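ok trying this again, last paste got cut off
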Amino acid sequence: FSTNIDTFSEIGAIKLLAGLILEEDLDANIRCGSSEVIGTSSSRYVGIEDVAGKPKLYRNTTGAGGAWADIIAAYIPATAEWINDAIGHKGKLYVITQGTASATTFAVFKCDADGTNQVDQTAAIATAMGWTAVESGTAAFVEGNVLYVAVQQFATSKFGIAKTADNGTTWTKVIEFAAADSIPSFAVVAG
């Protein structure tokens, strides 16, 4: 194995650990994590469960031993229960949240790498799906130039996948299911 790879500065690099590094300053169960390059910013993100009425999305830009800061506390609604995914796409961070049955906003939103300049995508995705509301986002995946998100509507037990190729300006329904299960993760396979 190579010893010249730094896993904190080379996104996607693999390095064998000599020991376990513990981060003990997060205040709830971790639901997702990702390492993203958004514009010129390289960051690590960790999404956690509802704490004091809201989930948190922590960001670290300095690597091991660096500070983690919540970047969404100011605007995430109390109807969001936890962060399911955080993924970079076309210079923005897309955040996918699990909501309550009364959630109608911020199931899917995009923002800058530091959490600023939020744009809620929930209503636009509901329109694309032909639903009255999207109450949760469950997963996200980028394939080339296209972002796919898995979403659900609790009241009708509908689940589906929507996509955007223009950074959220337009959303299109890919597929819809009427079932009792969600879409916890997925991958788009060409061919």
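PB: full thing came through this time. Residues 62 and 146 are 29 Å apart (CA to CA).
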